[in-house]
Amino acid sequence: MIRKIEASDYQNLVLIWESAVLNTHDFLKEKDFNYYKEQIPTYFQHVLLLGYEENGVLVAFMGISGENLEMLFIHNDYRGKGIGKQLIYHAIRHLEVTNVDVNEQNIQAVDFYKHIGFKVLKRSPLDGQGKEYPILHMGLEANNY
């Protein structure tokens, strides 16, 4: 079930983020992981947050700003079950999301978004915090959803 995230969920979102990032961002330096873990809650207030519950347990979430998917994280124990697809299709169909930025080194995520129909539009050598993690700016060519 997809639902709106409340402030009371924020602690769970950090746990989901941590589980997801530890298992998908092996390129991330430990000091940068700790930096982003500290920063992630400050981003929550700037996006529309939606979560995915399975059997009453919050297991994934996404953050959206305008046409941009700003974050999508699935707890590692729930990856590969189609939850990410359900969330992104919901975002595309109901919230008109057409763009996403992805760490170039996160090959699984890049492939996931390509499978959904996103194309690489451009590349930035640094992430939004100025760190040396290249970002692929991806967009949907046509909204067929």
Task: Report on the architecture of this protein.
The chain has 145 residues and is of the alpha+beta class. It has a single domain, classed as Aminopeptidase, CATH 3.40.630.30. The chain has 4 helices and 7 strands, in the order E-H-H-E-E-E-H-E-H-E-E. The protein has a 7-stranded mixed beta sheet. Helix 1 (10-24) packs antiparallel against helix 2 (30-44). The longest helix is centred in the N-terminal third of the chain and has 15 residues, at 10-24. It is globular and about 40 Å long. The mean pLDDT is 93.
Which CATH class is shown?
Alpha Beta
Fourth-level CATH superfamily: Gcn5-related N-acetyltransferase (GNAT)
Averaging pLDDT over every residue, what do you get? 93
Task: Label the structural class.
Answer: alpha+beta
Largest sheet: 7 strands, mixed
Shape, per Cα inertia axes: globular
In spatial order, strands of the major sheet run 1-2-3-4-5-7-6
Secondary structure tally, helices: 4
- As for the number of domains, it is 1
Low-pLDDT regions: none
Ends distance: 19 Å
- Please count the beta strands (DSSP E, at least 2 residues each): 7
Return Rg in Å. 14 Å
Task: Predict the CATH topology.
Answer: Aminopeptidase
Strand content: 25-35%
Summarize the structure.
By secondary structure, the protein is of the alpha+beta class.
